[in-house]
Amino acid sequence: NIYKLLCVLLVVGSSFTKGIFHDSGFLDQIDRWNLDCPSVDDYIAENGNYTYECVDSSIPPYPLCLLHSVEYFIESAIASSDRCCDFSDLSECKCPIKESWWWKMKMGSWCEDIASCPATEGGGGYSAMETEVWTKFIGK
Fold this sequence. Notes:
It contains 7 helices and no strands. By secondary structure, the protein is mostly helical.
């Protein structure tokens, strides 16, 4: 077992070393994986009722964008948008970091972008987001 572990470490270590020293063969191998975030333009071309801002603000950065579909990210963003605050009066805002300047800067534009998303069919029930993500987070 120790020999297998040693072999694995040597293979991984040599690959890492090749990557550090910019061996183009190693980089070409990674490029073939084709792990890119979904294209906002492609999604909008297929789903014309979404704005660029809505889709772009819904998709998280790499590598998180690889974990779910664009539809999931949009639904999650819409479900989370009810927590957007009135930035002129933060007294009713429940976010614990609401006083941070960087939070205000990020959330202000994010809330505006997500507000441009079309409402879901069926009256806005975001059951996938509520049951799958938030109930696990809050322990229900």
